[in-house]
Specification:
This protein is 14% helix and 50% strand. The chain has 181 residues and is mainly beta. A hairpin with an 8-residue loop joins strand 3 and strand 4.
């Protein structure tokens, strides 16, 4: 079931990519790794203290007003703990999306399939380091808040890292700080 769901999501992302590759759209894709980290008391409830996810697939599109819409999918493969996450996030990049170093804050939500399907509210920070006009490295740190009424899932940290690919050559500058500051 996990494999079929993963293939379905991956196929959907490929279809979106085929439609999105044109000069006026600012689409990027990422493949990476992540893990869910729980406190020791919560580990006994969810089945382990750390659940690794590799690969983690992400598709993002710059919207406007320094905002980027992000969709991600990851699942625990080869881990004893069941953990599959579907994330929807909104990134705010402080107006520096053309720089080589792009810090951002995020807010969003997830549906986590573990013992039961559970929603979470997510917030965090991240940074994309562009090493060329098409490739970059992204690191992100999320906190996934799960309400106490959901007994099958607990709040946890969710760091991730990945290789980013821009479908169009993006303009970059070597500055960290915008010239208007």
């Amino acid at each position: 079931m996990k494999m079929q769901l993963g293939l379905l999501v991956f196929g959907f992302l490929l279809i979106l990519n085929l439609n999105a590759q044109n000069p006026t759209n600012k689409w990027v894709a990422e493949i990476g790794t992540a893990f869910a980290g729980y406190t020791k008391p919560d580990a006994s409830v969810v089945g382990g203290q750390i659940a690794y996810q590799t690969p983690r697939f992400t598709l993002a599109r710059y919207f406007k007003w320094n905002l980027t819409m992000v969709a991600s999918f990851a699942t625990a493969i080869g881990d004893d703990q069941e953990y599959t996450t579907f994330d929807g996030l909104l990134r705010y990049d402080f107006g520096n999306s053309s720089d080589n170093i792009v810090p951002y804050v995020v807010i969003g939500g997830s549906f986590i399939q573990a013992k039961r399907l559970t929603p979470t509210v997510n917030f965090g920070i991240g940074n994309t380091f562009w090493i060329s006009s098409k490739y970059g490295v992204n690191v992100q740190f999320l906190y996934k808040f799960s309400e106490t009424r959901f007994q099958s899932q607990k709040s946890h940290i969710y760091p991730s890292a990945g290789l980013v690919y821009s479908f169009g050559a993006r303009p970059t500058s070597n500055r960290i700080w915008n010239s208007t500051h």
